[in-house]
Design goal:
21% strand; alpha+beta; 2 domains; 145 residues; disordered C terminus; 5 helices; Dna Ligase, domain 1; 4 strands; four-stranded antiparallel β-sheet
């Protein structure tokens, strides 16, 4: 794995006009490889895209809330071993009516499983996409406490 340096972050920022956070996350996902990070960042300009996270059961509800706060989320799927456990459509009107009860149910459901994957389907312009890849799936991010 190549190191992530300020020079590499600046290269991505200069070439694509992304934020420091976006550049750093792209480099982390690409293992420090600038070319792979450039490709991933360019791909997110295509429209709808998905993002995938691996989380421990106790972290699922917090991660879903965080993703919703970031915005541009169309749908959230919670999967285990490629089986969809829960699929939550997210819309502006649905946040209060659907999401909050769904999050409570999600927390109970996921407590049974040790590890699951959160898949997020987003849309929007590249400027509105905070951290992502196109419709290809980003390698799962291991979140440990």
């Amino acid at each position: 794995m190549e190191g992530i340096t300020l020079d590499k972050i600046d290269q991505l920022r200069e070439r694509l006009g992304v934020s420091y956070r976006e550049a750093k996350e792209a480099l982390e996902q690409a293992g420090g490889n600038v070319i792979e990070a450039l490709i991933a960042l360019e791909n997110k300009k295509q429209g709808n895209w998905t993002e995938e996270f691996s989380v421990r059961s106790g972290e699922v509800v917090d991660k879903v809330k965080e993703l919703i706060r970031k915005g541009n989320v169309n749908k959230i799927r919670v999967k285990q071993d490629d089986k969809i456990l829960v699929e939550i459509p997210v819309g502006l009107g649905a946040i209060g009516a659907v999401i909050l009860p769904s999050l409570a149910a999600l927390g109970v459901l996921v407590a049974v499983f040790k590890r699951c994957t959160i898949e997020v389907v987003r849309s929007g312009d590249a400027e509105e996409m905070p951290d992502s890849a196109e419709t290809e799936v980003v390698p799962p991010v291991e979140l440990d406490r």
